Amino acid sequence: MLTKRIIPCLDIKNGRTVKGVNFVDLRDAGDPVELAAVYAQEGADELVFLDISATEEKRRTLANLVFHVAEKVNIPFTVGGGISSVEDVDILLKNGADKVSINSSAVKRPELINELVAKFGSQCIVVAIDAKQIDGEWKVHLVGGKVPTEIDLFEWAQEVESRGAGEILFTSMDHDGTKNGFANAALAKLSELVNIPIIASGGAGTISHFTDTFNEGKADAALAASIFHFKEIGIGDLKTALKTEGIPVRM
C-alpha cells in the first residue's frame, strides 16, 4: 500500500495565511513563509498554497511569495489560485512550485487541463474541486465557493481524470472548517470512480478524522489547515498515531 500523505494547506489572502469556516469568516493564521518552513521541518509530506482571492480579484497568484516559500521548503509544493493559462503555470514553476492546482478555470474551459498536461505532464497538474450538497446531490462551486453550478461532483471528477489530471483535491464546503470530520462517503465514491489520487479536504478536527478518511474515505492524502496553524495537532504526533493504527505514513 502506498504511504498516505499529510498536507498542510496555506490559504493566502493579502499575503497572509487565513482560515475560515465553510469558506467565510476568515481569521489571520500567520506568515505563510514561516509556517511553510515549520511544516517542512515537522514532517509534512507536501504543502498546498492557495491564493484564495486571486480568481475573484481576477489576478495572478503571488509568484514572489511562491518564490520565498519554495526557498524554505524541501518537500513538494502545490500552488493554486487565479491560474488560467500555460503562461501562468510556467511562471509558478519557475518560481519554485512543484505542482499547480486549477479549479474555476478548469470548469470554465476544461481543455485547459489537456493543455497543461501536454506542456508540463500529468504529475504536475492537480484539479481542485469545491463542492457542497444541494438537495442531496454534490454540486461543484466556483470562485472560492461563491458561485454554484449544476455540475455533478462525480461526473466532473471522471472528466478531470479523462483529460489527464494527475490528482484531485476535493474540498467539501459543508465540512470545511467545522472540525467534524471529512466527507468520507463522497470520498469513497470518488475513489471508486477514478484511478488517480484523491486528496481529502474539509473537516479535519481530530486524529481519528484522519484515520477515518484513510480507512473509510479511501483517501490517498489528507489536507488540513487550522488544526496545524493553531497548534491543535502536531504533524509528528498525527503520523505516530496513524502508524499505530496500521496506516502507512512516511516518518
UniProtKB/TrEMBL annotation:
Subcellular location: Cytoplasm
Pathway info: Amino-acid biosynthesis; L-histidine biosynthesis; L-histidine from 5-phospho-alpha-D-ribose 1-diphosphate: step 5/9
Gene Ontology CC: one annotated term: cytoplasm
Catalytic residue list: D11, D130
Gene3D superfamilies in the cross-refs: Aldolase class I
Pfam families xref list: His_biosynth
Gene Ontology terms: biological process: L-histidine biosynthetic process
Top enzyme class: lyase
Domain of life, source organism: Bacteria
Record keyword Amino-acid biosynthesis present: yes
EC number: 4.3.2.10
Gene Ontology molecular function, alphabetical: imidazoleglycerol-phosphate synthase activity; lyase activity
Keywords of the record: Amino-acid biosynthesis, Cytoplasm, Histidine biosynthesis, Lyase
Catalytic activity: 5-[(5-phospho-1-deoxy-D-ribulos-1-ylimino)methylamino]-1-(5-phospho-beta-D-ribosyl)imidazole-4-carboxamide + L-glutamine = D-erythro-1-(imidazol-4-yl)glycerol 3-phosphate + 5-amino-1-(5-phospho-beta-D-ribosyl)imidazole-4-carboxamide + L-glutamate + H(+)
Purpose: IGPS catalyzes the conversion of PRFAR and glutamine to IGP, AICAR and glutamate. The HisF subunit catalyzes the cyclization activity that produces IGP and AICAR from PRFAR using the ammonia provided by the HisH subunit.
Subunit structure comment from the entry: Heterodimer of HisH and HisF.
Protein family (similarity comment): Belongs to the HisA/HisF family.
Protein name: Imidazole glycerol phosphate synthase subunit HisF
Species, as recorded: Flagellimonas flava
